[in-house]
Amino acid sequence: MKTQVPTAEQQIRFLQNLQRLLEDGQFVSTYKFALLLSLADLAVEKGDNSGETLTIDSRQIAGKFIQYYWRQAIPYPSRGGPSRILQQNTGQQAAIINEAISLRETFGGSYARATRNTSNWNSLITKIAGTIRLMPLWKLQVIGGHINDFLYENTGKGGKVTLKPGIPYCLRMFHGQINNMVRGAWIRWVRKTKANQSILGQAADLGEFLFGSDRKPLTELNPFLREQQNGQCFYCENSLDTKTEVDHFIPWIRYPLDLGHNFVLAHGSCNNSKRDHLAAVQHLEKWVLRNRENRETLEFYFNQKDISYDLEATERIAQWAYQQADNTGGDAWIEKGSEIQPLGNDWKNILQVA
Question: Distance between CA 124 and CA 71 in Å, rounded?
Answer without folding.
Answer: 16
